[in-house]
């Protein structure tokens, strides 16, 4: 071996470059999928929050006294 670099790339280096290129492209697609899914989840959360708030507002208008504010009797502990 003389230590000089040839002008033409070896088949191994071409294959490695192709694998790296494909891995990079696959990574970009995966990141786009993750971001798209995250956007869909956030949109669904906003939709569900709006439904919940509307339901709570409707319940509050129909029954102004919340159940949690009602006085509850506590049971006395049983002594032995």
Give the CA-CA distance, first to last residue. 95 Å
Number of alpha- plus pi-helical segments: 1
**What is the number of E strands?**
0
Helix-strand topology string: H
Overall average pLDDT: 86
Question: Over all CA atoms, what is the radius of gyration?
Answer: 32 Å
How would the global form be characterised? elongated
Tell me the structural class: mainly alpha
Low-confidence stretches: none
- How much beta, percentage-wise? under 5%
- Quaternary assembly: single chain
Main beta sheet: none
In percent, how helical is the residue content?
55-70%
Q: How would you characterize the overall build of this protein?
A:
- With 80 residues, the protein is mainly alpha-helical.
- It has a domain at 11-62.
- The chain has one helix spanning 11-62.
- The longest helix has 52 residues, at 11-62.
List the helices and strands and how they pair.
Elements: H1 11-62
Keywords:
80 residues, mainly alpha, 65% helix, elongated
What's the short version?
65% of the residues lie in helices and 0% in strands.
């Amino acid at each position: 071996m003389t230590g000089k670099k040839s002008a033409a790339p070896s088949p191994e280096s071409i294959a490695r470059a192709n694998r790296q290129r494909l891995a990079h492209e696959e990574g970009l697609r995966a990141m786009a999928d993750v971001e798209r899914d995250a956007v869909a989840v956030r949109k669904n959360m906003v939709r569900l929050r709006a439904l919940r708030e509307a339901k709570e507002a409707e319940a509050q208008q129909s029954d102004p006294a919340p159940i949690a504010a009602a006085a509850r009797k506590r049971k006395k502990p049983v002594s032995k």
